[in-house]
Amino acid sequence: MKSFNKKFILTATLIASIYTALVWAGTDTDSNFEFVVMKDCQVVMQKEMTPEQREAYLSLKQQEQKMHELELPIQDIEVEIQQYSEQIESLVKLAIVDNEDSLYIDKTLLAEHDAIAREFTDFMSDHQAKFDAVGQHGQVIVEYANVFESSIKADLDNVDYDHIQVITPDKPTVNACYDNNFAKFM
């Protein structure tokens, strides 16, 4: 039943992605993508994106969607990782009892701990490719983010700002101000 659920979720995600792409393809993209530059929660500049900027932004969002898809299987195994961790921690507490006068080690529980630790190591090895794929795709996203950042950099010369938001056809308004000093790309 679980593999059916995973296939269903993956199929639903792919359908949603295709639908979004079709909606965006049918949208007048020349006037629906802007970036808003803010300083201390005040808009200091709002500018329509050029075709190059829009393409860089959409490519970045596409890579973020791919990351989301890569993260889905990891989210599924997080519960199992937590269960292994709790079980291992519990066995350590039970197997080794240290008080002021003595140290007691239950070799049976310690052997059970070792067996579960090996099982956990095997479990993690079985899923290592998923973790590696997420890490590698994170580097891809950084590259796409750098391309987008470079595409808007010239527009930001001589502009004092602490925050950037992107307005898109599916998100046509500026969100509440973020209280940080880093640019936020949405």
Summarize the structure.
By secondary structure, this protein is of the alpha+beta class.
Structure description:
62% of the residues lie in helices and 13% in strands. It has 186 residues and is of the alpha+beta class. It has a 3-stranded antiparallel sheet, with no helix packed on it. A hairpin with a 2-residue loop joins strand 1 and strand 2 (42-48). Helix 2 runs antiparallel to helix 3. The longest helix has 47 residues, at 107-153. The radius of gyration is 24 Å and the shape is elongated. The two termini are 36 Å apart.
Rounded to the nearest angstrom, the distance between the terminal CA atoms is 36 Å
SSE run: HEEHEEHE
Mean pLDDT across residues? 82
| Radius of gyration, CA atoms, in whole angstroms | 24 Å
Strand content: 5-15%
Topology (SSEs and partners):
Blueprint (H helix, E strand, L loop, with lengths): L1 H24 L8 E6 L2 E7 L2 H45 E3 L4 E3 L1 H47 L9 E5 L19
Antiparallel strand pairs: 1-2, 1-5, 3-4
Task: For the structure shown, list the relevant keywords.
186 residues; alpha+beta; three-stranded antiparallel β-sheet; two-stranded antiparallel ribbon; 3 helices; 5 strands; elongated; disordered N terminus; disordered C terminus
